[in-house]
Write a structure and sequence with these properties.
By secondary structure, this protein is mainly α. Helices cover 72% and strands 0% of the residues. It contains five helices and no strands. It is globular, with a radius of gyration of 17 Å.
Length: 148
């Protein structure tokens, strides 16, 4: 990885992490007490929104000439926004630990169902983002292929 790439990823990641923290602070009143057997709403929202944003970006990088992943602009956007911002904004580790903690305070199957629900929502959000980024009204029109 060259220094330019590292700077772009670090810059995007800084803004992604700051955005997630801001979201967490804004949604803190919805989380209940620290003894609560729930995942923080900000973690769930950040992961689902981040999946949509990453899909939107990758859809555009794969299908839009100006920002195509083969162009310098496309490569810059992938590093800055995809790997950097979305990587910093989303948080798999906090999600996973939250599920483990939840499983220790409620029926473990409730935690499993929450996990499956959030992963499913993230997958659907990614699919919708890819369709929107590609400029397609329906995901069924999307062609499969490699992401940048």
């Amino acid at each position: 990885m060259n220094p330019r790439s590292m700077v772009l990823v670090a810059l995007g990641g800084t803004f992604g992490v700051a955005s997630r923290e801001t979201l967490g602070l804004a949604l803190a009143p919805l989380n209940g007490t620290s003894d609560d057997a729930s995942l923080p709403w900000a973690v769930m929202l950040a992961n689902i929104a981040g999946a949509f944003l990453l899909g939107l970006l990758y859809g555009a990088l794969a299908h839009r000439r100006l920002v195509h992943h083969s162009t310098r602009l496309g490569q810059t956007l992938r590093l800055l926004l995809g790997i950097g911002f979305c990587g910093g904004f989303t948080t798999y580790s906090t999600f996973a630990v939250g599920l483990v903690l939840m499983a220790g305070t409620v029926d473990p199957w409730v935690a499993v169902l929450w996990g499956l629900g959030i992963v499913t929502a993230g997958t659907v959000a990614s699919w919708l983002g890819l369709a929107a980024g590609a400029g397609r009204a329906s995901g069924s029109q999307m062609q499969t292929g490699s992401l940048p």
